[in-house]
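WARN retry 2 of 3 for item q-0093 after timeout on previous attempt; input resubmitted unchanged.
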Amino acid sequence: MDCAFRGTSWVPPSPALRLGPSHLLPKLRFSVKLKPSSVRKRVVVSRASGSEEKDSGNGFSAAPSKVFVEETIGAEYGEGFETFRMDGPLKVDVDYLNDKLQECFLQRIRHAMKPDEAFGLIFSWDNVVADTRSLKLDAWRQLACEEGRDISSDSHTQRAILHTAADRVLQKVLCWTEEENELERFKSRLSELYYENLLNLEAPVEGLKEWLDAIYTVGIPTAVVSCLDRRHMLEALERMGLSKYFQAIVSEEDGMESIAHRFLSAAVKLDRKPSKCIVFEDDPRGITAAHNCTMMAVALIGAHPAYELVQADLAVASFSELSVINLRRLFAHKGSSFMDLQKQIIEKSPPKRKLMTDTIF
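OK item q-0093 returned
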């Protein structure tokens, strides 16, 4: 089986970029002298939220962050994305990857001896690797405090803040403003506050590190997907002590337009067929995206109650409930589904003996 596709598709995660004060100071426009740590923090937040300064007559313009945007699920009806190779653009979708990412001869031998390595595990960043619920809530509370406004503590408002796009929250839920300029200002500041809080994140979700240790021992490749930029994801993973566990990272730089596209990109980077990948999610939309990609889905109960995650192949309250045996069982009874292409086997019966005239007595 030709494996040229995998060789050209693998993109290993790049090391975190370290910028010294000499690289950062020329782009700052402050009238007061700041400490180096404060300077770095301001520029980190500015670049992470997509709001780098641009020379213009009115100061700078800020691009909205994807953190507070409700992304599409993706991969419906064979929808895919385009990637570029030396011989031109290439359309990548679920069926294409399941066909092209077949195991080579040596891989089949290795996976026969170590079957766990045939899987690929994909972890969503939000509320699976890091507790981003608290980061988002803190950002909204800080913004309300700065603007002299109040945010209701009822469940409807809190749920909308966590799971709805910032535009709709500002216009329909909180009713702060309808003006476009004010909306952009609120969203830009909200992103800055989120990334400021992200710099203080030092602990992963409870039980995740022990689970990753078990996976690392048996050699299952893992990836993490997020809409954050690569550098800040690497720095956050390093602070949480998780850098060595993830062989692939899908971040904002990959240019994926939907949740499912991020999962497909992670499968390519892990060199695993989508149908051999397992997604760890806490959101029903992410579970739907995983199934659209022919992937298994393990739901983490927390941000959503268990009854909203019934479509997952496995739902757990914490990572401590998981074992490698659970992953094997997800594929143990996987057979052909309705309308899957199947080969029709025609049984050929041996030819009957012909009776000749001289054999009849």
